[in-house]
Every structure is written in structure tokens, then in C-alpha cells.
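Pilot study result, target chain (143 residues):
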Amino acid sequence: MKTFLRAERARLSGTAQILFLKLGILLAYVGGPLLVTDHLKPLLQAPLPFALAFAPFVLIIFGAWSLLFWNNDSWDRFCVYAGFVGLAAMAGMDLYAAHFFLRGGVYSEPGLIKFGMAIGALVTVFYLRLALRCLREKRTLLA
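Predicted structure:
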């Protein structure tokens, strides 16, 4: 019975971690990616700026989903590594936003962008911690 309870607690803990990560990923969009989207709107047609700024988040979400049901197969590793690429792209957009504000740029909602940048930094650290633990231990977060 104790083994079952321990396994159930670990499963819920892993599920909660992934849920926190997915919500954080969606909140991180209001950081640098939102600013990048707004800056690309005059240059590109309507859906393209959003798609370009949101594509890294799709990669991160696929990586998070693979972490939840980790089988240590080639598809899971590919998705986790694609999540790393998404994190790098998100960090680049957040750095662009930080550079924009440090240069004295004006935006209608600077607090929203800064909040999203902070959430993006937390998501990056959290995803890296979970992904490296799964890649190193070769087991799922649910076990």
C-alpha cells in the first residue's frame, strides 16, 4: 500500500509540475514575444507575426508533453530538444524586449511585457530542470 501511495504522489507531483510549466509557457507569451509581434505587424500580414512569435511556444509545449509521458524513445528526445530550441527563441525575444526598454523604447503596457519576461525566465529554468532530469535518469516524471 505504501508503494502505491508513493507512486501516486509522484504521479500527481509530475502532473502538477507539467501543468505549472504549461501555464507558465502560455503566460510567457505576454513578454518579449508580444512585443516582437507588435513590432512585426507593420511589416508582415496579419496572422504571420503571431505565428512566428508563437511557434517557439508550440515547441516548448510539445517538449513538456513528452516529459510527462517519457518513454526515452527517439520521438520524446526529439520533442524535448525541440523544446530547448523553443526556449532559446523565447529567450531571444525576451532579450530583444529588454534591449528595447533599456534603449528607452515606449510601449503601451510595459508592465505586462516585463511580467511576461519574468515568467519566461522562470519557465526556462523550470523546463531545463525537468528536461535534464528526465534525459539523465531516463524515466518519466510519473514514475
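One observation from the pilot: Residues 24-137 form one domain. A full batch analysis is planned for the follow-on phase.
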